[in-house]
Design a protein that fits this description.
about 55% helix
Length: about 500
Amino acid sequence: MVDVSAPSPWQLLSLPGTLAAASYLAGPLAKQYRLIVDILDDERTHSLTGVGHDELEALVRGRLPDDDARNLLVDLDLNARMRQLVDWGTCESWQDRAESQQDFLRNRHRYQLTEAGSSLNAAARRIDADLGSTSTAVLLAPATIVERIAATLSALDGDSPARASQEFAQVQTTLDAMGMAASDWQSRLAAALGGTPTEQKISRLLETILAYVEAWGSGVDAWTGDIRAGLPRLQALPDGTWRAMALARLGAEAPEATLSDAVDEMRTAVGTLSTWFAGERPQAHRLRLQIRDAVTPVLRGHRALLAVGGTVSRKADLLRLATAIERAQGDEDAWRLWCAATGLYSARHTTWETPDVTAGPQTSTWDAPPAPISRRLRTQGARALSGRATRIVDTSAARAEARRLAARTQADLERAAAALTARSGTPLSTWDALSSTEVELLLELISAARNDRAADGTSTGWSADGRWRLALTPRPGSAVLSTPDGRLVLPDADVEFGA
């Protein structure tokens, strides 16, 4: 027998478990609970002391349709719903002070969302609206971070930890907004790139790419160098400086544990900045590469939709046709409109006058005289061909030319492989101009190497025929290669090329 009352190992772990405050989002009565929570969330901007029971009932009635408000309120049972929300921890309640005799006879409870309820409702609204966390404020986030870091260091140079703490708080807030935007872009990319391409997925993917270009492409890439330049001074700040900034936020009477948490919070923000904008492979650079790789699926998805349906969608045309049919004066007009739009007219039979053959010749084939048949028709039968058979086309010259072209292509490939082998062991940034065949072979191997990356960052790729091997060891910086078609910009790396 298993002792059900005994706690399981999972229950003993210090991990997050059930979040009771989110229970109102699921279940058959979710619409009723979300209506109440939405009203309480909206009223926070008008009332700082909660919403009374009678006022809440009037607000709920105002949100419901006028015709069905009475019946819907009977099914709502506001008292039971509020008790359940309080039990879940989504709302909190208290009673007003009774100032008259009538106050003892009415419901004096007041309600307000808890911190958990407010955060959960904000997340639910954002998911329903499908707007994500991106906003126009993110467009100025990189420049804001540069200015606030400079202001923080300037305040510390002026021995003003209070002002430095205020400036760095804006860095933390802006960094959180940027993290939410990047997380939203990642989730949209994952959802849009998975499965069969549809018009909605392609549109969502295109919106994500454009949002990145506006927020990060013109901001993060332009200000990354300035942000990286200010990080060493922030990382070198002593513990006493961080503690002074934490004291400016929390006050001198704050507990030691709270001060330590504030110092760790600010140091974590500096570590996040370093991870995003510094190092050999910063996260901002990796996000840029992911957005770049999403451009090809957008074009491929557009081509797939155009190839399958001829156009992306005929939904708008069909909706206009349905609207016109609904507004028709009668069935005959509606049918005439349908036939004109689709060409599906009813069948029409045309009768031609034919001669009467009932009194024609009645001679049997047995009694009729024989018909003359030529000797050629008797020997060849119903053959469709006449004369000599067509000779087989002579393709020997074309095959010989194809063999010469293949030999010339293979020779060019061998020369390109020999030239790349001579450059083995050198960084990409030191290479001279490449020929077209060398560029084609190098790009093929780099594409194969992207799918085989080791833990130390080294990438290895093999050619399609398995003859040549390319190994790339990352280096800081970028490499610009000159090709017959222009310049090719790649991350710098040490190259090892061989058979």
